[in-house]
Amino acid sequence: MARIVHSLDDALAPIADGCMLAVPRETTGVAMAATRALIRHGLKRLHLVALPTSTLQADLLIGAGCIDTLETSAVSLGEFGPAPRFTAAILAGSIHMRDATCPALHAQFQAAEKGVPFMPLRGLIGSDLMTHRADWKIIDNPFGNNDPIVLLPALKPDVVLFHAPMADRAGNVFVGTQRELFAMAHAAQKTIVTVAKLHDGDLLADPILAAGTLPGFYVETVAVEPRGAWPLPLPDHYGIDAAHMSEYARLAATPDGFADYLQRYVHERRAA
């Protein structure tokens, strides 16, 4: 059963050097306050899996030297331009990139969620991805005739980390319509969640909220972090901080500018 902890540092204790850490896409609920705390902790050699894409979160962690392997289908700042620290790392060869596609990553999490070793998927044969992913196997469909199909291994992260609108005091977490968070929590060894607030009552007993609630027995720790996704959005609660994202894109374009950003917005622990 989930533990409600009083400090973000306590909540993040299960995330250690070298672990496989899975995080959701920008518009699902990204734990950015927790991400800044991980950088302050000086974590190294993380295998980051972003389902299925990432923006500021991956770029920050890469620039801060936390990432050894990145597994995702894309990293960019969207309308704010390319992800500068990701781009620099790829050009320098300083991280190991495991290219994927959005459907492939979802299928791999679904395999782990179902407790099966792999998931079949179409649409990959003929792409150059198959030449770079030795762990993706092509077999003949045993129920078809000359019908090759790709098998993708289950992805079982050590830890899943995300931000959500609220949790109750039993650790049940309301994620609303962000259904991929269920699959991620089901697939992971441990799930850590930051929430905007605690709900007085049982979310699973609420006929309106229960369907969008992740039961607490899938959750390791919960910490309250108001506006914990900032400067990224939290669906149905607040939007992206466009001015901050523009500032990040400008500063992170150079190593010195990125170091200045870390000092001002990560190490000084400014409020959102």
Structure description:
The chain is an alpha/beta fold and 272 residues long. The protein is 29% helix and 26% strand. It has helices spanning 8-11, 32-41, 56-63, 84-92, 102-114, 129-132, 180-187, 242-251, 255-267, and strands at residues 3-5, 20-24, 46-51, 53-54, 67-72, 74-75, 96-99, 118-121, 137-140, 148-153, 159-168, 173-174, 190-199, 213-214, 221-224. The strands form 3 sheets. Strands 1, 2, 3, 5, 7, 11, 12, 13, 14 and 15 form a 10-stranded mixed sheet that branches. A 3-stranded antiparallel sheet has the order 8-10-9, covered by helices on one side. A two-stranded parallel sheet has the order 4-6. Strand 9 and strand 10 form a beta hairpin. The protein is globular, with a radius of gyration of 19 Å.
